[in-house]
Structures are given as structure tokens and as C-alpha cells.
């Protein structure tokens, strides 16, 4: 009888211990000690958020041994992003070459009149070129992060590539500040002329003067320029915000947040570069007289009449209204 009682007590104790271990298993699984001798690889991989040990220094972030989500981020950075960037940039270059070979430069059908009109002020051109210059340096230095190792490193060697990458990083960090200021100034400076309206719909339907030889009326900014404006503003603010989060780590988020910020930053940036290639094309070899608007600030009157006729009418009406009217004296 005594043996039976002992057996019952032992069975009850074992059952209670089993229930206790089972109830504590979920919390124990989330607190796996990676330094323990009995820990298994499968236990570590089951940690969904991160594999973290214990450290004695104040910075507890140093205890993170591995973050499994980092594998997905590394695959995006080394594989997916290169495909997205390659398709966006090389694809845009290919389209522009094909378009230029088939369409050529959009010429002034009426020729030059010899008279010019102010298109952009000195201040507007300064803001534009400051932002554009910063963007070009940011684009080149940023693309070096993604494509520099597989494309540039084999050509110039490790030592030259290391020096170039270091200076590119400095330029990328410091020029981000005037670029952000330029985007904000562009937003404030041209917001009034970039609100979509019904004229833009007709402009798009008629090909905007790029497809074919039609010249639909437009105000100071046509639908294509308005699209570029909003891409610059929205895209510029996105790359700026995510870039500053990466430049000043752990102030706004942890590792997971910075990985998401880097993915957004990279995707928006490569698409931004693709759009700006088309913008540069139209403003240089794509359209006769277009570069003069941001070069000298003036355009030929015939150019304004063909591409921005409604704006030219507004400028003429404003100028005529500002001219003093001749006084009439009654005859005696």
C-alpha cells in the first residue's frame, strides 16, 4: 500500500511538472540563451524577431547576434534592388534612345522670331540648378552603393574603389541638406502653377507636342512638367526623410525600421533617377529651345506660343496692362 501511495504521488508530481513546463514553454522559447551549451540551431531559427543574448554594457543593442529578417533585407539589397534599378535606369535610357532615333528633336515649326520673353527669374534658376546639381551627385554616389561593387570595383581595383566610395559617402551625406532645402523651395516656389486642371487633360490626350506634331495649349507648366514637379516634391521628401533616418540611426526606429527605410529610400531613388533621365532628355536634346528657359532664363516668343500659348497670352495681357496709356487732350 505504501508503494502504491508513493507511485501515485510520483505520478501526480510528474504530471504537475509536465503541465508547468508546457505552460512556460512559449515564454522560454522567446528567451533562448544563444550562449548555452545545450542550445540548438533550430531553437535559434524559431526566434521570429531576433536572436539576442545578454550583455553587461549599457548599449543593449549590442546583444543582438542575428536578426532573421535581415536575410530578407540582404536579399533585397543584393538581388531585388539591382533588378529594379537596372530595369528603371537602363530601360529608360533604352526608351529614350529609341524615341530619339524615331522622333528626333522637337523643332520649332514657326522658326525663331528673334524676340524673347522671360521664362524663369534668376532666383528660380538658382534654386533649380542647386537642387539639380545636388541630385546628380546624390544619384551617382547612391548608385555606387548598389552597383559599385559588381561594376566599378573590377575596373579600378580595391584601393581606388575604397577611396572613391569614401568620398562618395561624404558627398552623399552632406549634399543631402541643400538638396532637401531645394526641394522645399521648389515646392513653395511653383506650387501655384502646378495644380492640375482641365487643360492638362486635353494636353495629355493630344500627346503634349511630343508625340506627333500637335501643340496643345498650356499655361506656364504643362501636364508633363506638373508630373515632374510632383515627382520631385514627393519623391524628394521621401528620399530625404528615409535618408536622414539612416544617417542618424536608432533615433526614430530600431533595426527593423531602418531596414524598411532603406528599402523605401532605394526604390524611390532608382525610380527618381529614371524619371530625371527623361526630364534631362526633354530639356536638352529632346526639344529645341527648352534648355534656354533654365539656361538664360528667356525663351523665344515663338517657342512660348507653340508650347505654352496660354501662359504667353497671360504674360502679354499683364505687360499690356502695365504699359501707360497715351493721354488724350481735347481739341480747343
UniProtKB/TrEMBL annotation:
Gene from which the chain derives: fdoI
Protein species of origin: Bradyrhizobium ivorense
Pfam families linked: Ni_hydr_CYTB
Keyword Heme attributed: yes
Molecular-function annotations in GO: electron transfer activity; formate dehydrogenase (NAD+) activity; formate dehydrogenase (quinone) activity; metal ion binding
Protein name: Formate dehydrogenase, cytochrome b556(Fdo) subunit
InterPro entries from the UniProt entry: Cyt_b561_bac/Ni-Hgenase, Di-haem_cyt_TM, FDH_cytochrome_b556_subunit, Formate_DH_gsu
Highest taxon of the lineage: Bacteria
Family note: Belongs to the formate dehydrogenase gamma subunit family.
Example GO BP: anaerobic respiration
Amino acid at each position: 500500500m505504501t508503494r502504491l501511495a508513493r507511485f501515485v504521488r510520483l505520478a501526480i508530481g510528474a504530471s504537475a511538472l509536465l503541465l508547468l513546463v508546457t505552460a512556460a514553454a512559449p515564454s522560454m522559447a522567446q528567451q533562448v540563451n544563444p550562449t548555452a551549451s545545450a542550445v540548438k540551431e533550430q531553437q535559434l531559427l524559431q526566434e521570429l524577431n531576433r536572436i539576442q543574448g545578454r550583455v553587461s554594457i549599457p548599449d543593449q543593442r549590442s546583444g543582438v547576434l542575428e536578426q532573421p529578417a535581415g536575410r530578407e533585407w540582404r536579399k533585397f539589397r543584393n538581388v531585388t534592388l539591382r533588378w529594379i534599378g537596372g530595369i528603371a535606369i537602363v530601360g529608360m535610357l533604352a526608351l529614350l534612345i529609341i524615341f530619339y532615333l524615331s522622333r528626333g528633336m522637337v523643332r520649332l515649326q514657326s522658326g525663331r522670331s528673334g524676340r524673347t520673353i522671360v521664362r524663369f527669374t534668376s532666383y528660380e534658376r538658382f534654386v533649380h540648378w542647386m537642387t539639380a546639381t545636388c541630385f546628380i551627385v546624390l544619384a551617382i554616389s547612391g548608385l555606387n552603393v548598389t552597383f559599385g561593387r559588381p561594376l566599378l570595383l573590377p575596373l579600378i581595383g580595391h584601393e581606388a574603389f575604397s577611396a572613391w566610395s569614401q568620398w562618395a559617402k561624404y558627398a552623399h551625406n552632406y549634399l543631402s541638406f541643400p538638396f532637401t532645402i531645394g526641394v522645399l523651395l521648389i515646392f513653395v516656389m511653383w506650387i501655384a502653377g502646378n495644380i492640375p486642371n482641365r487643360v492638362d487633360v486635353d494636353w495629355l490626350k493630344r500627346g503634349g507636342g511630343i508625340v506627333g506634331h500637335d501643340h496643345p495649349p498650356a499655361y506656364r507648366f504643362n501636364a508633363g512638367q506638373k508630373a515632374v514637379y510632383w515627382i520631385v516634391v514627393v519623391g524628394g521628401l521621401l528620399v530625404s526623410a528615409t535618408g536622414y533616418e539612416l544617417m542618424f540611426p536608432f533615433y526614430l526606429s530600431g533595426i527593423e525600421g531602418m531596414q524598411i527605410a532603406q528599402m523605401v529610400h532605394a526604390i524611390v531613388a532608382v525610380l527618381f533617377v529614371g524619371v530625371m533621365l527623361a526630364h534631362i532628355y526633354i530639356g536638352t536634346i529632346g526639344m529645341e529651345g527648352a534648355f534656354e528657359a533654365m539656361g538664360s532664363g528667356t525663351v523665344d516668343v515663338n517657342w512660348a506660343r507653340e508650347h505654352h500659348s496660354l501662359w504667353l497670352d497671360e504674360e502679354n495681357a499683364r505687360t499690356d496692362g502695365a504699359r501707360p496709356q497715351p493721354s488724350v487732350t481735347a481739341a480747343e
